[in-house]
């Protein structure tokens, strides 16, 4: 094996210290909300931890654990199984299904929850058809599973999140050598044996990584569990903070969530570290798909189509049906304002996030010091921290700062300016920036790495400053990556619900919060237009993701 690659560094020169210092400031601002949660939790105004521990916390933690491991296991089974089928076999519509299996990423889990309840509830088309077909007149005449339940929440979350496992597992299966499977077949392994004894062990680190992402997203979820009435740690933050007014108690629950998230991250890291496999050749022979004919082929098609139907077709069909069945809902009061708010905060947050990531990554590359390089990975913690946790860490210190500024302005000018930051959408933009900073950082860091070091060196030798080299050399070459980062951050901002609910000013709706509020009032017709707009934005991102994911070619 060759020597490990050495990351190139842009020569510093005059002004490099300013960029490095700025990078440290940005990193501090990104990490600060998490540190704020820890401070609030360990120094609460009123310590209700013993009360939480003896009353509601065990129920919150138990439901969270069941949802987390249930959704993770189901998503891992569905994602890995679908990835195995489309990688190893040829069957009807396999090329189309490769792309369709990514589509549930376009639909937030809470929209899937609204659609499932509307479809299966007592007044929904399924139960109405059953009563008409069997002649039943009321719910006492028959039994139907409870729709708003913990089990249904697990199914909805897994249906929305399994593509994370599917993408990573498919890449892992596709990178394996055909020789391993040929040897296994020669030793008598059947189709299931190939998967269980060869494919699954080789892809286990990738599947574990995907399942860890699913579990972290499940812990972060608020829309599904709130709509289904399942009390989790995330709903506990809302209850303790908004209903009892105890920020310290909410921070203590947030610390429990952070502990769970860190444990999941550690579990994923350990799984990757303890499972290492290497190819015996530099260019392993690619896997040749086996053709499935007849009933076996159509069964594989059905198995791959089922998660697409549950995670995409059903939610889209129900929501679109309501949206176009009631055209007047598109001109209802507040929808246009929510759309404008979404564009405003999402656009501002994506621009700020990508600009800060560019500045920080470039500043770290300019310096030869270890501290900025060590801090760089720490800034990704915001993506792991749920939106409700970040809201606790942002709103409390920001509100205190706002009050101090207002008091100072009142003393100096005699006029009270009000709450400048927490009384506007600035807090939401900050939360989005912290939450999705890791996306922008990863995209920009990879883009910097693809630029030849000789180009900025030549620019600096011609008298360009560090900023000039960034503006005239890097940015033109990184335009595509920067645009992709802006799009991905914007899409995640549009879908974010918990942080927006907690941090928005009074009467300030986005598409996500409007859909959630209308659906919570059982008004699916009014919830459908904003939900459909969220789905449309998500589909744009999935199209870019599918192009990148499937660009490896089909065999």
Walk me through the structure.
Helix 5 packs across helix 7 (150-175) and helix 14 crosses helix 22 (479-495). The chain has 25 helices and two strands. The protein starts with 15 loop residues before the first helix and ends in a 6-residue tail after the last helix. Strands 1-2 form a two-stranded parallel ribbon. The model is unreliable at 1-8 (pLDDT under 50). Helix content is 74%, strand content 1%. With 555 residues, it is mainly alpha-helical. The protein has two domains: 30-325, Orthogonal Bundle (MetI-like fold); 335-508, MetI-like (MetI-like fold), CATH 1.10.3720.
What does the secondary structure layout of this molecule look like, with pairings?
Layout: H1 16-42, H2 49-54, H3 57-88, E1 89-90, H4 94-100, H5 109-120, H6 125-134, H7 150-175, H8 178-186, H9 191-220, H10 223-228, H11 233-243, H12 247-273, E2 290-291, H13 294-325, H14 335-366, H15 370-378, H16 381-384, H17 387-413, H18 426-435, H19 437-449, H20 454-461, H21 466-477, H22 479-495, H23 498-503, H24 511-520, H25 524-549
Parallel strand pairs: 1-2
Helix pairs in contact: 1-12, 1-14, 1-15, 1-17, 3-7, 3-9, 3-11, 3-13, 5-7, 5-13, 7-9, 7-13, 8-9, 9-12, 11-12, 12-17, 13-25, 14-18, 14-19, 14-22, 17-18, 19-22, 20-21, 22-25, 24-25
How do you describe this structure in short?
The protein is mainly alpha-helical and 555 residues long. It has helices at residues 16-42, 49-54, 57-88, 94-100, 109-120, 125-134, 150-175, 178-186, 191-220, 223-228, 233-243, 247-273, 294-325, 335-366, 370-378, 381-384, 387-413, 426-435, 437-449, 454-461, 466-477, 479-495, 498-503, 511-520, 524-549; strands at residues 89-90, 290-291.
